[in-house]
Amino acid sequence: MSNLAWIFFSTILVNNFTLVMFLGLCSFFGVTAKIETAWRLGLANTFVLLITAVSAWFLNTYVLATTPYLRTIAFIVVIASAVQIVEMAVKKYLPVLFRQLGIYLPLITTNCAILGLALFQTSRKYTLVEGIVFALGAGIGLTLALSLLASIRERIEVADVPEMASKMGLVLVVASCLSMAFMGFAGMGSG
Amino acid sequence: MTAPTAVVLRDEPFVPGAPAAAPLWFDVWRGIAQENPVLVQMLGMCPTMAVTNMLANGIAMGIATLFVLVGSGLFVSLFRKYIANEVRITSYILIIATFVTLADLILAATFPDISKALGPFIPLIVANCLLLGRAEAFAAKVGPVRAVADGLGMGLGFTFSLMAMSAIRELLGSGSLLGFDILGPKFEPWVFMVMPPGGFLTLGILLLIKGWFMARNARRARRATA
């Protein structure tokens, strides 16, 4: 039990997927202009992460044990199909949410956080339950990082910044400070 | 810069949204300069940050991505007339994943140390938005020669950016380059630079310098016209 709690909290804070392990940076910089879209995308990502964790566990246990060289191809096909299914289901049953997410839903396929989760889960040999907790922690960590950066960027929007910092440069420096703040949690790992 | 007329490929049938005909050298050059994947388009951020703490890792990642870009560009372009529009993204991803698997196995067989250091970031090239972006925006709409030229340019641009970032980070973070001690024993390494925040900061500062030059040029242009 304590092991599960450790996986959960360390994935949110100590090894935050976006700020410490650099996964899913495209959406981190691409869709964080508005906090509303940022945290909705975070939730959609969490859902796909959960599906991926379960599918990756089944693939690893029953299919890929004898064919490890097919891992990358098998994972990406499963992720692409999972995203497709989620997209169709959301479109059918939650049309309002579907309209709000728009293009970001299919784009989850090329979010490295999803494939990264499947690969890290494999290399750390997590069981099914550990994998699900890992996915949940990763999703919450992702949502947290996206929302944090989005709220800071909304403030930058109305601030008077120098001309040279008006593009992405300033956002990256802000991300560096955020990442530095999360490094502070690293001490929890050794304790 | 005047556009030379030589080697323009005009025998391609018109495809909606296809990139304008251009000389071959320009297809290569654009990826290195005007549309540099890292410094201009901000694509492929994850490997850019994650593996640039050592120059050797940055070079290996750059070359692996270059290989996948050229290979997938060639095959996406060759099969562009046979891939149905509805399943194109999945097909591109499959082609890319095949080349990534090749790159992964080749790297593990030839440079096992670097392969171990990069870990899951080599298979993660599949999810690099740069690859799917070039397949969708360029390779699927032009002939194989131009697709390879574009892949080469984008791959070189990516490699150069990664080399610049990893050289800065390794020099300041460990006082060495490619493992050789450069700054001597008296230099206190800035451990910060090889840790995650250092990656964000290095690219941020590079972009700020770029922004400063662009702002200065814009000011000068305004003054010249006024």
In words, what does this structure look like?
The complex is a heterodimer of chains A (191) and B (226). Chain A is mainly alpha-helical and 191 residues long. Chain A has one domain (2-190). In chain A, 76% of the residues lie in helices and 0% in strands. Chain A is built from ten helices and no strands. Chain A has helices at residues 2-14, 25-30, 35-63, 71-93, 95-101, 104-107, 112-123, 128-158, 168-183, 187-190. The longest helix of chain A has 31 residues, at 128-158. The mean pLDDT of chain A is 82. Chain B is an all-alpha fold and 226 residues long. Chain B has one domain. In chain B, strand 1 and strand 2 (180-181) form a beta hairpin. In chain B, helix 3 packs antiparallel against helix 7 (144-174) and helix 4 (88-110) packs across helix 5 (112-118). The two termini of chain B are 24 Å apart. The model of chain B is unreliable at 1-13 (pLDDT under 50). The interface between A and B is large, with 46 and 45 residues.
Give the topology.
The complex is a heterodimer of chains A (191) and B (226).
Chain A: H1 2-14, H2 25-30, H3 35-63, H4 71-93, H5 95-101, H6 104-107, H7 112-123, H8 128-158, H9 168-183, H10 187-190
Chain B: H1 24-32, H2 45-50, H3 55-78, H4 88-110, H5 112-118, H6 129-137, H7 144-174, E1 176-177, E2 180-181, H8 191-194, H9 196-225
Antiparallel strand pairs in B: 1-2
Summarize the structure.
Chain A has 191 residues and is mainly alpha-helical. Chain A has helices spanning 2-14, 25-30, 35-63, 71-93, 95-101, 104-107, 112-123, 128-158, 168-183, 187-190.
